[in-house]
Amino acid sequence: MNLTANEKKTFFLHLTYAFLSGIIQGVLALNEFVFIKSLHGSNFQLGFLFQFSVVVFAFLFILNEFLKRITNKKKLLMVVGIITHLPMALLAFFPHAQPSPIYNYLFLGIFLVYFMGWPVTLPLINLFLKNSYRHAHFATLFSYATSVTKATMLLVTFGYGLLLDLDNYAFTWIFPGVSLLGIGAIYLLTRIDYHHPESVADISHQGMVASIGQSVKNMLEILKDNAPYRHFEIGFMLYGVAYMMSITVITIFFDDALHLNYASVAFYKNGYNVVAILLLPLCGRLMGKIDPRLFAGMTYLSMFLYIVSVALTEFFAFHFEMWDIRFYYMLLPYMVFNGAFVAGMSLLWSIGSAYFCNDEDVADYQSLHLSLVGVRALFAPLAGVWLYEMIGFALTFSIAAALLVLAMGMMVWSHKKQAQ
Predict the structure, then answer these.
(1) Considering the domain 5-196+206-419 in this protein, what is its CATH number?
(2) Contact between residue 147 and residue 277 where contact means Cβ atoms under 8 Å apart
(3) Whether the Cβ atoms of residue 355 and residue 368 lie closer than 8 Å to each other
(4) Confidence (pLDDT) at 61
(5) Do the beta carbons of residue 8 and residue 134 sit within 8 Å?
(6) Distance in angstroms (rounded) separating the CA atoms of residues 253 and 251
(7) Report field, pTM of the whole predicted structure over 0.70
(8) Which is one GO molecular function term here (predicted)?
Protein backbone atom coordinates (compact mmCIF):
# COMPACT_ATOMS: atom_id res chain seq x y z
CA MET A 1 0.00 0.00 0.00
CA ASN A 2 1.50 3.32 -1.12
CA LEU A 3 0.89 5.72 1.80
CA THR A 4 1.76 9.40 1.94
CA ALA A 5 3.93 10.76 4.77
CA ASN A 6 0.85 12.19 6.49
CA GLU A 7 -1.00 8.88 6.17
CA LYS A 8 1.96 7.04 7.73
CA LYS A 9 2.08 9.45 10.67
CA THR A 10 -1.67 9.27 11.16
CA PHE A 11 -1.66 5.48 10.93
CA PHE A 12 1.07 5.23 13.61
CA LEU A 13 -0.92 7.47 15.95
CA HIS A 14 -4.10 5.59 15.05
CA LEU A 15 -2.49 2.22 15.84
CA THR A 16 -1.12 3.44 19.17
CA TYR A 17 -4.51 4.85 20.08
CA ALA A 18 -6.09 1.55 19.00
CA PHE A 19 -3.80 -0.36 21.38
CA LEU A 20 -4.68 1.83 24.37
CA SER A 21 -8.34 1.73 23.37
CA GLY A 22 -8.15 -2.07 23.34
CA ILE A 23 -6.99 -2.06 26.97
CA ILE A 24 -9.88 0.20 27.95
CA GLN A 25 -12.43 -1.81 25.96
CA GLY A 26 -11.08 -5.04 27.43
CA VAL A 27 -11.93 -3.78 30.91
CA LEU A 28 -15.27 -2.29 29.87
CA ALA A 29 -16.23 -5.58 28.16
CA LEU A 30 -17.03 -7.07 31.58
CA ASN A 31 -18.59 -3.92 33.01
CA GLU A 32 -22.19 -5.10 32.85
CA PHE A 33 -21.25 -8.45 34.40
CA VAL A 34 -19.35 -6.60 37.16
CA PHE A 35 -22.48 -4.57 37.84
CA ILE A 36 -24.78 -7.56 38.37
CA LYS A 37 -22.26 -10.00 39.88
CA SER A 38 -20.10 -7.79 42.12
CA LEU A 39 -22.41 -4.84 42.81
CA HIS A 40 -25.61 -6.93 42.60
CA GLY A 41 -27.44 -4.38 40.46
CA SER A 42 -31.01 -5.06 39.37
CA ASN A 43 -32.01 -6.06 35.83
CA PHE A 44 -33.47 -2.62 35.08
CA GLN A 45 -30.39 -0.88 36.49
CA LEU A 46 -28.34 -3.06 34.14
CA GLY A 47 -30.59 -1.89 31.31
CA PHE A 48 -29.84 1.71 32.25
CA LEU A 49 -26.08 1.01 32.25
CA PHE A 50 -26.23 -0.17 28.65
CA GLN A 51 -28.74 2.54 27.73
CA PHE A 52 -26.36 5.26 28.91
CA SER A 53 -23.74 4.10 26.40
CA VAL A 54 -26.02 4.89 23.44
CA VAL A 55 -28.77 7.26 24.56
CA VAL A 56 -26.19 10.06 24.77
CA PHE A 57 -26.25 10.17 20.96
CA ALA A 58 -29.94 11.16 20.81
CA PHE A 59 -29.14 14.86 20.82
CA LEU A 60 -25.99 14.72 18.75
CA PHE A 61 -27.56 17.04 16.17
CA ILE A 62 -27.40 19.79 18.83
CA LEU A 63 -23.77 19.01 19.59
CA ASN A 64 -23.04 18.91 15.87
CA GLU A 65 -23.89 22.63 15.61
CA PHE A 66 -21.66 23.29 18.60
CA LEU A 67 -18.82 21.29 17.04
CA LYS A 68 -19.08 23.25 13.79
CA ARG A 69 -18.50 26.49 15.70
CA ILE A 70 -15.36 25.25 17.41
CA THR A 71 -12.28 25.91 15.28
CA ASN A 72 -9.81 24.40 17.78
CA LYS A 73 -11.26 20.91 17.69
CA LYS A 74 -8.09 19.33 19.10
CA LYS A 75 -8.36 21.37 22.30
CA LEU A 76 -12.04 20.46 22.62
CA LEU A 77 -11.22 16.77 22.21
CA MET A 78 -8.56 16.97 24.95
CA VAL A 79 -10.78 18.84 27.42
CA VAL A 80 -13.71 16.45 26.91
CA GLY A 81 -11.35 13.47 27.26
CA ILE A 82 -10.09 14.67 30.64
CA ILE A 83 -13.53 15.57 32.02
CA THR A 84 -15.14 12.27 31.04
CA HIS A 85 -12.30 9.90 31.99
CA LEU A 86 -11.19 11.27 35.38
CA PRO A 87 -14.38 10.31 37.32
CA MET A 88 -13.55 6.63 36.81
CA ALA A 89 -10.74 7.12 39.33
CA LEU A 90 -13.45 7.55 42.01
CA LEU A 91 -14.07 3.80 41.82
CA ALA A 92 -10.94 3.43 43.95
CA PHE A 93 -13.07 4.51 46.92
CA PHE A 94 -15.72 1.80 46.48
CA PRO A 95 -15.77 -0.68 49.43
CA HIS A 96 -14.33 -4.19 49.00
CA ALA A 97 -17.38 -5.87 50.48
CA GLN A 98 -21.14 -6.09 49.95
CA PRO A 99 -21.66 -2.43 49.00
CA SER A 100 -24.59 -0.19 49.87
CA PRO A 101 -27.15 0.27 47.04
CA ILE A 102 -25.98 3.90 46.80
CA TYR A 103 -22.81 2.65 45.11
CA ASN A 104 -24.92 1.21 42.28
CA TYR A 105 -26.14 4.71 41.49
CA LEU A 106 -22.64 6.16 41.83
CA PHE A 107 -21.37 3.51 39.41
CA LEU A 108 -24.14 4.40 36.95
CA GLY A 109 -23.38 8.12 37.33
CA ILE A 110 -19.65 7.70 36.73
CA PHE A 111 -20.23 5.82 33.50
CA LEU A 112 -22.97 8.19 32.36
CA VAL A 113 -20.34 10.96 32.51
CA TYR A 114 -17.88 8.75 30.62
CA PHE A 115 -20.38 7.90 27.89
CA MET A 116 -21.38 11.56 27.55
CA GLY A 117 -17.99 12.16 25.97
CA TRP A 118 -18.67 9.79 23.07
CA PRO A 119 -20.96 12.15 21.05
CA VAL A 120 -18.04 14.59 20.93
CA THR A 121 -15.04 12.28 20.60
CA LEU A 122 -16.36 9.75 18.07
CA PRO A 123 -17.39 12.25 15.34
CA LEU A 124 -14.12 14.15 15.81
CA ILE A 125 -12.04 10.97 15.55
CA ASN A 126 -13.92 10.04 12.38
CA LEU A 127 -13.37 13.57 11.03
CA PHE A 128 -9.64 13.56 11.77
CA LEU A 129 -9.10 10.15 10.16
CA LYS A 130 -11.29 10.84 7.13
CA ASN A 131 -9.36 14.08 6.62
CA SER A 132 -5.98 12.29 6.78
CA TYR A 133 -6.64 9.02 4.93
CA ARG A 134 -7.45 8.84 1.24
CA HIS A 135 -10.80 7.27 0.41
CA ALA A 136 -9.22 4.20 -1.19
CA HIS A 137 -7.29 3.40 2.00
CA PHE A 138 -9.81 4.53 4.62
CA ALA A 139 -11.65 1.25 5.31
CA THR A 140 -8.51 -0.91 5.04
CA LEU A 141 -6.40 1.18 7.44
CA PHE A 142 -9.36 1.52 9.79
CA SER A 143 -9.80 -2.26 9.82
CA TYR A 144 -6.10 -2.82 10.64
CA ALA A 145 -6.30 -0.44 13.60
CA THR A 146 -9.53 -2.07 14.75
CA SER A 147 -7.77 -5.46 14.62
CA VAL A 148 -5.14 -4.12 17.03
CA THR A 149 -7.91 -2.92 19.34
CA LYS A 150 -9.62 -6.31 19.24
CA ALA A 151 -6.39 -8.27 19.80
CA THR A 152 -5.49 -6.15 22.82
CA MET A 153 -9.04 -6.34 24.13
CA LEU A 154 -8.87 -10.12 23.84
CA LEU A 155 -5.89 -10.43 26.18
CA VAL A 156 -7.09 -7.81 28.64
CA THR A 157 -10.62 -9.24 28.90
CA PHE A 158 -9.34 -12.72 29.67
CA GLY A 159 -6.80 -11.52 32.24
CA TYR A 160 -9.34 -9.19 33.84
CA GLY A 161 -11.91 -12.00 34.02
CA LEU A 162 -9.46 -14.26 35.86
CA LEU A 163 -8.59 -11.40 38.19
CA LEU A 164 -12.25 -10.73 38.99
CA ASP A 165 -12.80 -14.40 39.86
CA LEU A 166 -9.99 -14.04 42.40
CA ASP A 167 -11.23 -10.67 43.67
CA ASN A 168 -14.73 -9.55 42.73
CA TYR A 169 -13.78 -5.98 43.59
CA ALA A 170 -10.60 -5.75 41.54
CA PHE A 171 -12.34 -3.13 39.42
CA THR A 172 -11.79 -0.62 42.23
CA TRP A 173 -8.07 -0.41 41.48
CA ILE A 174 -8.20 -1.21 37.76
CA PHE A 175 -10.38 1.74 36.74
CA PRO A 176 -8.14 4.52 38.11
CA GLY A 177 -5.44 3.27 35.72
CA VAL A 178 -7.97 3.03 32.90
CA SER A 179 -8.92 6.67 33.41
CA LEU A 180 -5.31 7.76 32.87
CA LEU A 181 -4.90 5.50 29.83
CA GLY A 182 -8.05 7.01 28.32
CA ILE A 183 -6.69 10.53 28.68
CA GLY A 184 -3.39 9.44 27.13
CA ALA A 185 -5.21 7.84 24.19
CA ILE A 186 -7.16 11.04 23.54
CA TYR A 187 -3.93 13.05 23.63
CA LEU A 188 -2.50 10.87 20.85
CA LEU A 189 -5.46 11.71 18.62
CA THR A 190 -4.78 15.42 19.06
CA ARG A 191 -1.37 14.87 17.42
CA ILE A 192 -3.05 13.97 14.10
CA ASP A 193 -2.60 16.79 11.56
CA TYR A 194 -5.94 18.48 11.13
CA HIS A 195 -6.76 22.06 10.19
CA HIS A 196 -10.28 23.44 10.30
CA PRO A 197 -11.15 24.09 6.64
CA GLU A 198 -13.31 27.13 7.31
CA SER A 199 -12.21 30.59 8.38
CA VAL A 200 -13.95 32.30 11.29
CA ALA A 201 -15.91 34.37 8.78
CA ASP A 202 -17.34 31.20 7.25
CA ILE A 203 -18.85 29.98 10.53
CA SER A 204 -22.55 30.64 10.89
CA HIS A 205 -23.40 33.62 13.08
CA GLN A 206 -27.00 32.47 13.51
CA GLY A 207 -28.31 32.10 17.00
CA MET A 208 -27.87 28.66 18.53
CA VAL A 209 -31.60 27.86 18.40
CA ALA A 210 -31.81 28.89 14.74
CA SER A 211 -28.72 26.83 13.95
CA ILE A 212 -30.17 23.77 15.67
CA GLY A 213 -33.37 24.21 13.70
CA GLN A 214 -31.33 24.40 10.51
CA SER A 215 -29.42 21.28 11.55
CA VAL A 216 -32.67 19.35 12.05
CA LYS A 217 -33.86 20.60 8.65
CA ASN A 218 -30.60 19.48 7.01
CA MET A 219 -30.91 16.01 8.55
CA LEU A 220 -34.48 15.63 7.37
CA GLU A 221 -33.41 16.73 3.89
CA ILE A 222 -30.64 14.12 3.90
CA LEU A 223 -33.17 11.39 4.71
CA LYS A 224 -35.62 12.75 2.15
CA ASP A 225 -33.20 13.29 -0.76
CA ASN A 226 -30.74 10.41 -0.28
CA ALA A 227 -32.91 7.31 -0.70
CA PRO A 228 -30.09 4.72 -0.39
CA TYR A 229 -28.97 6.31 2.89
CA ARG A 230 -32.58 6.49 4.11
CA HIS A 231 -33.02 2.77 3.45
CA PHE A 232 -29.67 2.08 5.13
CA GLU A 233 -30.82 3.92 8.27
CA ILE A 234 -34.21 2.16 8.32
CA GLY A 235 -32.41 -1.18 8.27
CA PHE A 236 -29.98 0.07 10.89
CA MET A 237 -32.89 1.15 13.08
CA LEU A 238 -34.44 -2.32 12.92
CA TYR A 239 -31.09 -3.95 13.65
CA GLY A 240 -30.37 -1.46 16.45
CA VAL A 241 -33.62 -2.14 18.26
CA ALA A 242 -32.94 -5.90 18.03
CA TYR A 243 -29.40 -5.45 19.32
CA MET A 244 -30.33 -3.17 22.21
CA MET A 245 -33.24 -5.40 23.22
CA SER A 246 -31.06 -8.50 23.31
CA ILE A 247 -27.63 -7.40 24.56
CA THR A 248 -28.68 -6.76 28.17
CA VAL A 249 -30.94 -9.83 28.19
CA ILE A 250 -28.00 -11.99 27.05
CA THR A 251 -25.96 -10.72 30.02
CA ILE A 252 -28.84 -11.64 32.34
CA PHE A 253 -29.16 -15.02 30.56
CA PHE A 254 -25.47 -15.79 31.13
CA ASP A 255 -25.84 -15.06 34.86
CA ASP A 256 -29.33 -16.32 35.72
CA ALA A 257 -29.80 -19.22 33.29
CA LEU A 258 -26.26 -20.45 32.60
CA HIS A 259 -24.62 -19.37 35.89
CA LEU A 260 -21.36 -18.40 34.22
CA ASN A 261 -18.43 -17.06 36.23
CA TYR A 262 -16.18 -14.19 35.11
CA ALA A 263 -13.65 -16.52 33.45
CA SER A 264 -16.39 -18.19 31.38
CA VAL A 265 -17.84 -14.87 30.23
CA ALA A 266 -14.35 -13.65 29.35
CA PHE A 267 -13.75 -16.86 27.37
CA TYR A 268 -16.86 -16.39 25.21
CA LYS A 269 -16.14 -12.71 24.68
CA ASN A 270 -12.58 -13.55 23.71
CA GLY A 271 -13.76 -16.35 21.44
CA TYR A 272 -15.84 -14.08 19.25
CA ASN A 273 -13.17 -11.39 19.34
CA VAL A 274 -10.62 -13.88 17.95
CA VAL A 275 -12.96 -14.50 15.03
CA ALA A 276 -13.46 -10.74 14.64
CA ILE A 277 -9.70 -10.12 14.52
CA LEU A 278 -9.26 -12.74 11.82
CA LEU A 279 -12.15 -11.37 9.75
CA LEU A 280 -11.57 -7.62 10.13
CA PRO A 281 -8.99 -7.21 7.33
CA LEU A 282 -11.22 -9.23 5.00
CA CYS A 283 -14.25 -7.15 6.02
CA GLY A 284 -12.29 -3.94 5.40
CA ARG A 285 -11.45 -4.98 1.86
CA LEU A 286 -14.95 -6.33 1.24
CA MET A 287 -16.62 -3.16 2.46
CA GLY A 288 -14.53 -1.11 0.04
CA LYS A 289 -15.69 -3.25 -2.90
CA ILE A 290 -19.42 -3.92 -2.43
CA ASP A 291 -22.47 -1.80 -1.72
CA PRO A 292 -22.58 -0.96 2.02
CA ARG A 293 -26.22 -2.09 2.15
CA LEU A 294 -25.25 -5.61 1.10
CA PHE A 295 -22.40 -5.52 3.62
CA ALA A 296 -24.94 -4.47 6.27
CA GLY A 297 -27.25 -7.33 5.29
CA MET A 298 -24.46 -9.88 5.78
CA THR A 299 -23.64 -8.32 9.16
CA TYR A 300 -27.29 -8.55 10.27
CA LEU A 301 -27.37 -12.20 9.17
CA SER A 302 -24.40 -12.91 11.45
CA MET A 303 -26.25 -11.39 14.39
CA PHE A 304 -29.41 -13.33 13.56
CA LEU A 305 -27.44 -16.57 13.69
CA TYR A 306 -25.76 -15.77 17.00
CA ILE A 307 -29.10 -14.81 18.59
CA VAL A 308 -30.53 -18.15 17.47
CA SER A 309 -27.50 -19.97 18.95
CA VAL A 310 -27.95 -18.28 22.33
CA ALA A 311 -31.69 -18.96 22.34
CA LEU A 312 -31.15 -22.67 21.63
CA THR A 313 -28.76 -22.92 24.59
CA GLU A 314 -31.78 -22.66 26.90
CA PHE A 315 -33.20 -25.88 25.42
CA PHE A 316 -29.94 -27.72 24.59
CA ALA A 317 -27.86 -26.87 27.64
CA PHE A 318 -25.21 -29.57 27.10
CA HIS A 319 -21.86 -28.52 28.51
CA PHE A 320 -18.70 -29.58 30.29
CA GLU A 321 -16.31 -27.77 32.62
CA MET A 322 -12.55 -27.38 32.31
CA TRP A 323 -10.08 -24.84 33.79
CA ASP A 324 -12.95 -23.29 35.76
CA ILE A 325 -14.70 -22.47 32.45
CA ARG A 326 -18.14 -23.83 31.53
CA PHE A 327 -18.21 -24.82 27.85
CA TYR A 328 -21.70 -24.90 26.31
CA TYR A 329 -21.83 -26.61 22.91
CA MET A 330 -24.47 -24.23 21.54
CA LEU A 331 -22.34 -21.23 22.49
CA LEU A 332 -19.56 -22.36 20.14
CA PRO A 333 -21.47 -21.29 17.00
CA TYR A 334 -22.49 -18.20 18.99
CA MET A 335 -18.81 -17.25 19.21
CA VAL A 336 -18.26 -17.74 15.47
CA PHE A 337 -21.32 -15.79 14.31
CA ASN A 338 -20.85 -13.09 16.93
CA GLY A 339 -17.26 -12.69 15.77
CA ALA A 340 -18.41 -12.19 12.17
CA PHE A 341 -20.99 -9.69 13.42
CA VAL A 342 -18.46 -7.73 15.50
CA ALA A 343 -16.01 -7.56 12.59
CA GLY A 344 -18.65 -6.21 10.22
CA MET A 345 -20.33 -3.88 12.69
CA SER A 346 -17.00 -2.40 13.87
CA LEU A 347 -16.67 -0.93 10.39
CA LEU A 348 -20.34 -0.38 9.57
CA TRP A 349 -21.14 1.51 12.77
CA SER A 350 -18.07 3.74 12.63
CA ILE A 351 -17.70 4.57 8.94
CA GLY A 352 -20.72 3.07 7.14
CA SER A 353 -22.49 6.41 6.68
CA ALA A 354 -19.35 7.91 5.08
CA TYR A 355 -19.96 5.78 1.96
CA PHE A 356 -23.20 7.62 1.17
CA CYS A 357 -21.80 11.16 1.00
CA ASN A 358 -18.96 13.44 -0.07
CA ASP A 359 -15.98 13.93 2.27
CA GLU A 360 -17.17 17.38 3.39
CA ASP A 361 -20.54 15.95 4.45
CA VAL A 362 -19.15 13.10 6.60
CA ALA A 363 -19.71 14.93 9.90
CA ASP A 364 -23.37 15.68 9.08
CA TYR A 365 -24.12 12.13 7.99
CA GLN A 366 -22.33 10.59 10.98
CA SER A 367 -24.12 13.02 13.30
CA LEU A 368 -27.49 11.95 11.88
CA HIS A 369 -26.48 8.28 12.07
CA LEU A 370 -25.46 8.50 15.73
CA SER A 371 -28.49 10.64 16.64
CA LEU A 372 -30.74 7.84 15.39
CA VAL A 373 -28.72 5.39 17.51
CA GLY A 374 -29.58 7.54 20.53
CA VAL A 375 -33.27 7.70 19.60
CA ARG A 376 -33.73 3.93 19.69
CA ALA A 377 -31.71 3.80 22.92
CA LEU A 378 -34.47 5.82 24.58
CA PHE A 379 -36.67 2.71 24.68
CA ALA A 380 -35.02 -0.45 23.29
CA PRO A 381 -32.71 -1.55 26.18
CA LEU A 382 -35.37 -1.24 28.88
CA ALA A 383 -37.97 -2.72 26.53
CA GLY A 384 -35.75 -5.79 26.23
CA VAL A 385 -35.55 -6.20 30.02
CA TRP A 386 -39.31 -5.65 30.34
CA LEU A 387 -40.05 -8.23 27.62
CA TYR A 388 -37.75 -10.77 29.29
CA GLU A 389 -39.51 -10.33 32.63
CA MET A 390 -42.93 -10.58 30.95
CA ILE A 391 -42.44 -13.39 28.40
CA GLY A 392 -39.05 -14.98 29.14
CA PHE A 393 -35.78 -15.42 27.28
CA ALA A 394 -36.97 -17.44 24.27
CA LEU A 395 -39.71 -15.09 23.07
CA THR A 396 -37.56 -12.01 23.66
CA PHE A 397 -34.81 -13.51 21.50
CA SER A 398 -37.42 -14.47 18.88
CA ILE A 399 -38.64 -10.87 18.60
CA ALA A 400 -35.05 -9.68 18.16
CA ALA A 401 -34.46 -12.28 15.44
CA ALA A 402 -37.64 -11.21 13.60
CA LEU A 403 -36.47 -7.58 13.56
CA LEU A 404 -33.16 -8.70 12.05
CA VAL A 405 -34.99 -10.55 9.27
CA LEU A 406 -36.82 -7.31 8.44
CA ALA A 407 -33.51 -5.40 8.46
CA MET A 408 -31.93 -7.88 6.03
CA GLY A 409 -34.97 -7.68 3.78
CA MET A 410 -34.75 -3.88 3.68
CA MET A 411 -31.09 -3.98 2.62
CA VAL A 412 -31.70 -6.47 -0.20
CA TRP A 413 -34.82 -4.64 -1.41
CA SER A 414 -33.05 -1.26 -1.41
CA HIS A 415 -30.08 -2.57 -3.38
CA LYS A 416 -32.31 -4.27 -5.97
CA LYS A 417 -34.51 -1.19 -6.27
CA GLN A 418 -31.52 1.05 -7.07
CA ALA A 419 -30.11 -1.50 -9.54
CA GLN A 420 -33.33 -1.47 -11.57
Answers:
(1) 1.20.1250.20
(2) yes
(3) no
(4) 66
(5) no
(6) 5
(7) yes
(8) transmembrane transporter activity
